[in-house]
Design brief:
Largest interface: A-B, 18 and 19 residues
Order of helices and strands of chain B: EHEHHEHEHE
Helix content of chain C: 25-40%
Number of domains of chain C: 1
Number of helices of chain B: 5
Chains: A alpha/beta (about 110), B alpha/beta (about 140), C alpha/beta (about 130)
CATH architecture of chain B: 3-Layer(aba) Sandwich
Shape of chain C: globular
CATH topology of chain B: Hypothetical Protein Ychn, Chain: A
CATH topology of chain C: Hypothetical Protein Ychn, Chain: A
Strand order of the largest sheet of chain C: 6-5-2-1-7
Number of domains of chain B: 1
Strand content of chain B: 15-25%
Number of strands of chain C: 7
Structural class of chain C: alpha/beta
Largest sheet of chain B: 5 strands, parallel
Number of strands of chain B: 5
Distance between the termini of chain B: 36 Å
CATH class of chain C: Alpha Beta
CATH superfamily of chain C: DsrEFH-like
Largest sheet of chain C: 5 strands, parallel
Oligomer: heterotrimer
Order of helices and strands of chain C: EHHEEEHEHEHE
Strand order of the largest sheet of chain B: 4-3-2-1-5
CATH superfamily of chain B: DsrEFH-like
CATH architecture of chain C: 3-Layer(aba) Sandwich
Helix content of chain B: 25-40%
CATH class of chain B: Alpha Beta
Distance between the termini of chain C: 18 Å
Number of helices of chain C: 5
Chain lengths: ~110, ~140, ~130
């Protein structure tokens, strides 16, 4: 079993390839890996309940840890008490710590 | 012994959020006591460009001092200084051919010129590598 | 250390650079004995098409004499021992026929990317 960190900086409103990264995260879990999907920059936009949020909830329910950069949320006025189910606010240091732990990391 | 992370960056400053996020990550890594290698590829060679200069902001009625416009070269210099104070290092390599084609030869002190071979050496010698590509 | 390099953005700066910067850096790293392979996904699957032709540009009479030849670059990379994977769903979605492609590609369905990534020490998404 390997550990993966997928950093998603783009949003599914403007970029229809983003949902493929959510699918990749789920597929990596199905392959027996531990996966964190870390949303950052506009990647946090679907964390606010809206038309694409169900995708994130489904991703989390599939066993992916879905985190959203707390600064990116605040920058966009998304209260961390208002996040869609399955998404948790987290500090950027999670990325640094997971990189230092040797997780296979991909930025999208 | 401190762990080492390598970052490959591609974006120039002032154009999108990726360059600021990269700076946040590098800053955090240094604060965590890690050594950091940076391979600046393509437009990212402008991040440590020595000739970046502040300006006032007439739209907001702010003088040069009041505006205190961020300069990535100053951020990088400060992060390098912080690393040195902690006994760790930020080793920043600008891709030389990218520097040449952009005329970005004047970089701040502490930045060196290199090639993709340096990036591969960085990656092999560090605990992990994150590539932040451009779009 | 074995690394998979993912190229997704296509035709970004390729005319000014006369190369795709990621295919180029992969060639340079291979020259430094890096153990790497390449995955083309998204619009970058178009890079595997033989018939790409970016020749003929000129600006104020200044002609571009070395237009990018990205398919040739992939063939050369393949010749150095680098595997070139292509997401076959992305080809189909774009209406690209197998006969249009360079030889020697390894096709992978999107659904199998997770398994592919598991075989590498690191995966760099450029």
């Amino acid at each position: 079993m390997a550990k993966f960190l997928l950093i998603e900086s783009r949003d599914p409103f403007d970029n229809n390839v983003v949902t493929r990264q959510y699918d990749l995260a789920v597929n990596l879990v199905k392959e027996g890996n531990e996966v964190t999907l870390f949303l950052i920059q506009n990647g946090v936009l679907p964390a606010r309940p809206g038309s694409h949020s169900a995708l994130l909830t489904a991703t989390a329910r599939s066993g992916v840890e879905v985190l959203a950069d707390d600064f990116s949320l605040r920058e966009r006025g998304i209260a961390d008490t208002r996040l869609v189910e399955g998404v948790k606010a987290a500090p950027l240091s999670v990325i640094v710590d997971q990189l230092a732990d040797g997780r296979k990391a991909m930025w999208h | 012994m401190s762990k080492t992370l390598t970052f490959a960056l591609m974006d120039p400053p002032f154009e999108n959020a990726r360059s600021t996020t990269a700076m946040r990550l590098i800053d955090l890594a240094v604060k965590r006591g890690l050594n950091v290698n940076v391979f600046a590829y393509e437009g990212a060679v402008y991040l440590p460009f020595a000739k970046q200069a502040q300006h006032p902001n007439a739209v907001h009625g702010r003088s040069l001092e009041e505006e205190n416009h961020p300069l990535p070269r100053a951020w990088i210099a400060a992060i390098m200084k912080e690393a040195a104070a902690k006994g760790t290092k930020v080793d920043w390599v600008n891709c030389g051919l990218c520097v040449d084609e952009r005329g970005a030869g004047e970089a701040i002190e502490g930045v060196r010129r290199g090639s993709p071979a340096d990036f591969w050496k960085f990656a092999e010698g560090s605990d992990n590598t994150l590539v932040i590509g451009t779009k | 250390m074995k690394v998979l390099n993912i190229v997704e953005a296509a035709y970004r700066g390729t005319l000014e650079e006369q190369d795709d910067p990621i295919i180029w850096i992969c060639s340079a790293m291979k020259g430094a004995n890096a153990d790497i392979d390449v995955l083309l996904r998204g619009n970058a699957v178009n890079y595997a098409i033989k018939a790409q032709d970016a020749s003929g540009l000129s600006f104020g009479g200044q002609e571009q004499t070395q237009p990018p030849k990205i398919a040739d670059d992939l063939v050369r990379l393949k010749g150095k021992g680098v595997k070139i994977y292509v997401v076959d769903d992305a080809l189909r979605e774009r209406g690209i026929e197998p006969s249009e492609l360079i030889d020697g590609l390894d096709f992978v369905p999107r659904s199998k990317l997770a398994r592919l990534f598991g075989g590498y020490d690191q995966v760099w998404h450029w």
